[in-house]
Design a protein that fits this description.
Beta-Lactamase, two-stranded antiparallel ribbon, 8 strands, Arc Repressor Mutant, subunit A, 8 helices, six-stranded antiparallel beta sheet
Length: 260
């Protein structure tokens, strides 16, 4: 079967909604249904449905005085998230490179999203045996080092609300699936300032992570170092990897305005 072009997957209603949002640019603060209908070449009823949908999600709001529409706070939040992530990435890259120069294992920067860790960037080791890049992947927070350093500074109630409703999926024999055991380990992570993934997501892979904080003291991401367990033993973790990861996370946090 021939592979479809990406254009064949486009959903027209989503495309129209994005076209509508893009009408609010430069000096255009507010627009009415009639004007949007002309600009988009869509019937007023279709425009109204698009507006109602976007308004229900906070991306559009109506000015009750003029009955025109303008961008909502959700659009601003989305833009701010992009800016923050780009700032984080820009500051993180040279630090990741420095980590790899010193230990020659793969280094990541990751962020937390709704119970998952998303890997934003990576600098890989030049060794033949290495961890497969996870950039762009979403991994469960409870069995990743980067996820644990986020969960560790939340309340038990917050943690439970973010974890799967029923059982925690086991990825390897080392995955922690008992909630009480997990909570206990997270308290230890908070006390130590770093977390370990001891072959809990992938067999043969160990990872150490430490939290990144910004000027508000909020945790905005994590720096981690991953490698095969045959190279990353307990002694190396304690003497080399942990100090290196903590130092790198503190340096990046300082660059983002955090001070103890």
């Amino acid at each position: 079967m021939a592979r479809k072009e990406k254009s064949e997957y486009i959903i027209q209603a989503v495309s129209h909604a994005l076209d509508l949002l893009e009408q609010f640019h430069d000096d255009v603060d507010e627009l009415g249904v009639t004007e949007l209908s002309k600009r988009l070449k869509l019937h007023k009823n279709n425009v109204f449905r698009l507006l109602a949908t976007l308004e229900s999600r906070g991306y559009i709001e109506q000015n009750k005085a003029t009955e025109n529409y303008r961008l909502g706070l959700k659009a601003l939040e989305l833009g701010q998230t992009f800016i923050k992530q780009m700032g984080l990435l820009r500051q993180a890259k040279p630090i990741l490179e420095k980590i790899v120069e010193r230990c020659n294992e793969t280094a990541y920067v990751a962020i937390f999203k709704e119970g998952y860790i998303v890997y934003l960037d990576v600098v890989e080791t030049n060794l033949t045996v290495r961890v497969v890049s996870r950039v762009g992947s979403r991994m469960p927070a409870y069995c990743t080092a980067a996820g644990k350093v986020h969960l560790a500074f939340m309340s038990d109630e917050e943690i439970d609300s973010l974890l799967p409703a029923r059982t925690l999926k086991s990825f390897t024999a080392n995955t922690i699936t008992d909630r009480e055991v997990l909570h206990k380990q997270l308290r230890e992570v908070a006390a130590k300032g770093y977390a370990l993934d001891d072959e809990e997501l992938d067999l043969g892979v160990r990872c150490v992570a430490a939290p990144i904080r910004d000027y508000t003291r909020r945790i905005v991401g994590a720096i981690s170092v991953s490698g095969p367990s045959m190279r990353i033993d307990d002694k190396r973790i304690e003497e080399e990897i942990v100090p290196l990861v903590i130092e790198a996370a503190e340096e990046l946090s300082n660059r983002l305005g955090f001070h103890k």
